[in-house]
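= Paired protein data =
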Amino acid sequence: MANTQEKNIFYKRLLIFIWHGFFLALTMSMLDFNTVFPALISELIDSKIIFGLLYSIMLGVPLIFNLIFSHYLQYYQYKKKFLLTGIYLRSLAYLGMTIFTYFFARENPLLVIISLFFWISLFSLSGGFAGLAFTDIIGKLFTREQRGRVYAYKQFTSSFAAFLGGFIISRIFTTNRLDFPANYSLALFIGFAGLFVASLAFWLIKEPPSKLEKKEREPLKTFIKNIPVILKRDSRFTRFIVVENMTSFSLMVLPFFMVFARDTFNIDETYIGRYLLFQVAGTILSNLFWGYISGNRGSKMVVRTCIFLGSLIPVSAIILSYFGPDIYAVVFFLIGFIISGRRIGFDPYFLEIAPEEERTIYLGVRGTLSVLVVLMPVVGGFFVELLGYYFTFITVSVVMLSAFLLVGRGEETCGN
């Protein structure tokens, strides 16, 4: 009886996260970081450096503030209210981008770019805040044995939602009724609505309290000073941080594959949806591949394989660019492989590393010390602007391959 009750509780909780994962994936397709977002910025301004800076804000703002967030959240037994607050702020950022893009993109694109620095910062900041609460809640609701299944089910459902999102994007950018900027504005508005719907399931969560150590609130300054103590005490976590920074070089070029295609082939907006569908197809089809590796070799092998594939993609982009824009879609298929592998292998392994009572602290330290994740897109923008795509792509492949060789079989992280 108890076993049946435990299964029912598990599946009820699982359905909540599947609901959220489905609508979140649909939402994120509307501003996909590798296709839609680069295309929008390219429409507004022809500067690889500005684009790299915006992309760094997109990825880096949560990491910069994660330490502050984790210091704050560690004293609260319940995180659901923080999760919902972060989601609604992110939804507001979608709405802000929608309004500015629709009303000002054609006549005053510079104003839209300036506004995007604010909206993207809010989008990323609130996402990082919600992400910490989200990961901690998953850690509380599911056992170590259940988490892998939860992430696999969530990834599988999210992949189909992203595929649906790809069809929506393809439809938006191929219809003759929607010109720039109405097409991007509609996509962003769907993102706003989808994110709001995604949050509804979390109201049903009955969150258990976190295990808190009985201690007085310490100043942030003291908390920061304790970071070296954590790193010295936990060598596995320290190694995790070092390798994650090494593999962040893949972020140097990830947003530029779409920009490279636009510059090389002079393609129109119909390819945005097409490339996104290829990326999502890679995400879906790779689930079996990653699931097999994870089940037979563990999450370490999943993330190590990510590093190797990450080293191949930039060189593949150069080679495939000689065969035209249709064959070039394979690049995005490979990117889909990386996205799926990271989600299935990376987070479950991190949850194994982090002690339950210090999970929030570990999340903050991990994010804040991932400094290269913040810098790489900006560096990539300078490299592409000054040295060209080929030099940048080859450099990243060499660094990623070196990381793969240096990591060895026992290390644990993957290229982004």
